[in-house]
Every structure is written in C-alpha cells, then in structure tokens.
Amino acid sequence: MALICPSNFDKASLIQQVQATYEQVAQHPDGDFHFHRGPAYAAQYLDYDADELAQLPALATQRFAGVGNPVQIGDLDPSLNAIREGQVVLDHACGAGTDLLLAARRVGKTGKAIGVDLTPGMRDMATKAAELAGLSDIVDIHAGIYEELPVDDASVDVVISNGVINLAPDKVRVFKEISRVLKPGGYLFLADVVVQRELTLDARSNPELWAACVGGALVESELTELAQECGLHNGKIVKRFNCFLNTTAEQKVAKDLFVHAVNFVAKK
C-alpha cells in the first residue's frame, strides 16, 4: 500500500504547490490546468444535474474541480440514507463550495453544512457563494487541513470528499480523522482518484505528479482495506468516472494504470 509518501518526499513543497494551484483556480478558473473544471464538466463527465447546478452561484460552479459526485452517492442505494433534512454534513476540502452548497440545500434550515479548506481564495469564494445562495445560516466555512479537521469528535452525520485524499501524504491519518468526526452510523461519501496498479517509486516521489492528482492515488483495491483499518466498514465502490479524459494529466502516466475516479461509500 502507498499509504504514506516516500521517506525522501518534500511534503512542504507538495502542500505549497497544491495550495498555489488551487489559489490560481480560485482567482482564474478559466486558466490552463491539468484537470477539467466548471459546471459543464460536472454535468457531462460526472453526472451532476445541470439544472441543479444552474441554481447555484457561478462563483462556486465555475471553480468546481472535483473528480466524482459524492453528494449523489446516497441517492444510488436507498439503504445508504441520502443526505437529508436536519443532518450535519462536512465537506472535506470544500473548494469554492459546489458540493457544500448542494449538501446545504438538502439538509435545510435544521441542518448544518461545514466546509473546511486549506486555500484562502477557495474559502473566500465558498463564503461569498453561500451568501449569494441564501445559505449563510446553514453553511460554516473553516480554515483547516484534512489531517486536523476543526470539528468535534462524533459530530458529523456525513463526510463528503471530492478529489483530495489522493493529495494527502499520509492517508491513514486522513481516514482516521474522518472516522473521528463521524457519528456512529455516519457515512463517508468519497469521490477520489484511483489507479489499477502500484505506481513506481519514481512516480510516487514526483511532486508534479502528486499535484496532478496521480502520484498519490491509491490502487483501487486498497480503498476498502484502508477504510476498514480506520473504523469505516462495508466499504464499496458504487460508480466510476473517466474524469481525466482529454487532459494533460492523462498524458503523464502509462495507459495500464487506468487513472480514473470512483464514488466510494463506507459506514462508521
């Protein structure tokens, strides 16, 4: 398992590179990046409801850069208890807030949608988008990192996460933190990048490939095992997405890696 980055890996450099990349997305969403962005991509590649996205402020949806559709996971199987009225939902690295606002609309005035993000520009956009959407009373935005979520133990019904765990140098710590904040019986609705075989040490030691969401990607079969080790059970993949089709990230790696994204669910 590539759960922790190589010992010689420059973690500080990776964090700086990731933060700089997403600050650029916040300020210039139409810029040149290695990944797709925006509401058309979300609808065409990731099965978001285009009409639902159109009801959100463009300030959020133009900066959407997820790889899957975590909010949708609860709708795919009635036994999973879709995000619903009165729940507390945590968006784990919320970006400009597209998934966060979708969750906020679902939990309503009796619920709470908490967004945590490392990047100041993204937090600013998410805060402004929540105001424009009339959801400020439901949405809370916090500065923070996924290794140290600024919320209490067992306080969250659903954690959603879209395309960020692959960027974490220590994935065991991140999954344990998710488990910590979830209530017993709570769910992780995760969308993230996976590969079909282990990357070479050279690839995993390349900060550029990590920032491209590839170098730190788990082998698909490792997701369930990692979740189980961290107290999240019954893990399963419920959908797949070819999120890197026609991007520069797709061109950086061998075809047999089959770099793609999955919707994954697990229960505490």
SSE succession: HHHHHEHEHEEHEHHEHEHE
Q: What portion of the residues fall into strands of 2 or more residues? A: 15-25%
Count of alpha and pi helical runs: 12
Low-confidence regions: none
**From the helix content, strand content and strand pairing, which structural class follows?**
alpha/beta
| Radius of gyration, whole Å | 17 Å
Count the strands? 8
The largest β sheet comes out as: 8 strands, mixed
Q: What is the first-to-last residue Cα distance? A: 22 Å
Mean pLDDT: 89
Helical proportion? 25-40%
Gross morphology is globular
What do these coordinates show?
This protein has 268 residues and is an alpha/beta fold. The protein has twelve helices and eight strands. The longest helix has 17 residues, at 11-27. The radius of gyration is 17 Å and the shape is globular. The model has no long low-confidence stretch (mean pLDDT 89).
